[in-house]
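A brief tutorial aside. Many learners find it easier to grasp structure tokens once they have seen a single protein encoded end to end. The record that follows does exactly this for tyrosine--tRNA ligase. Read the sequence first, then the structure, and try to relate runs of similar tokens to stretches of the chain.
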Amino acid sequence: MTPEESIALIKANLAEVRYCTPRSSTMLSSKRSGYYESTGVLPQLENLPIAKIGQLVQAGCHIKILLADVHAYMDSMKAPSELIAHRSEYYKFLIKSMLHVIVVDIDTAKLEFVRGSSYQWDKDYTMDSRRLEAMTKLSTARKAGAQALDEQYLNVDAQLGGIDQRKIFTFALENLPKLGYKKRAHLMNAMVPGLEEAQKLSSSEPSSKIGLLDTPEEVSKKLKKAMCVPKKVEGNGVIAFIEHIVFLVFAVKSGTPTFAVGQRDGDFWFTKTF
């Protein structure tokens, strides 16, 4: 794969890419990218960009997946540290299993899992956190500062996240240089709307999302009940699911994003491929 092909694959199907200069693009195609995974509630299929991680692996990136145990604990302080540790191991197993399903060779992939607690209690990290708090609003630093500092302490060239994290990425772009650290590129996935209404997927509405532990029967039932207005693309959860999940998985598995649908014409069934 040429550097140009690698860069095109890195940027494919993203909602937005920020600070991806020619120089940083070259670095991305040969070095690494960072992706951040929370260890709170079990993530929904639509919010876990496994196929995109698979594309980054195919592009030759070194992927670091942060098992954010400290972030998860600080967010609510409700779950005991022992439970969060077990969740971290479970998420690691879950992510590796899904990558295996979409035919990513995890044995040869440049894939690394890092626990936040392995460095986020260190003196230097803590000192940088206090410096950010002194330069910005305390509430902003507490919300966005840790994720910004992760880019530096994981030694990555880019961070992958949802478009809903744009403000956090902007915070990192503006404030890391003030600490003497370089800017990183930010790769943002589109947010997939729920299956029942035109809004961001909500974990509080079980029928509007496809869970990682759903059975094939449960998935089929949810898709049959989904709102799919004819000729309406905006806010259509089914079309968005096909575009951002199904097509991307097929692109990783076979190199061609295809989608086959069984249709009936009188007494005959045929398959139409898109």
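Self-check: The chain has two domains: 3-189, 206-273. If you spotted this yourself, you are ready for the next section.
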